[in-house]
Amino acid sequence: MAVSLRKARTIIRKTLEKGREMDLKPLSVVVLDAGGHVIAFEREDSAAPGRFAIAHGKAYGSVMLGMAGTAQMQRAEGQAYFMAAVNGVYGGQVIPVPGGVLLRDRKGTVIGAVGVTGDTSDNDAAAALAGIEAAGLVGEI
Question: DSSP 3-state assignment of 4?
Fold first, then answer.
């Protein structure tokens, strides 16, 4: 199963709605496929222009490592040299913090990732999870 553009748009729309419901700062949301390619991206009004790179880095690290942002952060804290090496391999594109959420189908197969940025990393992840669930997919934070 692949993440369709329709599902990606649902994830983004519902993530942004959840962010407004939680009274978060303006969010930026990216959805990647299983190969790390961008399917869709949106940045709310007033979100900083550099947020695409952050959202992408959160999602990219998740999908390329098969490890959600929370697990990446724990790994970075325990083995900083490993995450530094990984970031070198991936051209500095990995941001190992919550807000990078693995997308899984109902069978547990990784089919992509979502990256959210704009508020605290934990709030970013919570908003992403709401969007993913609304699209009928499973998120791993």
Answer: coil
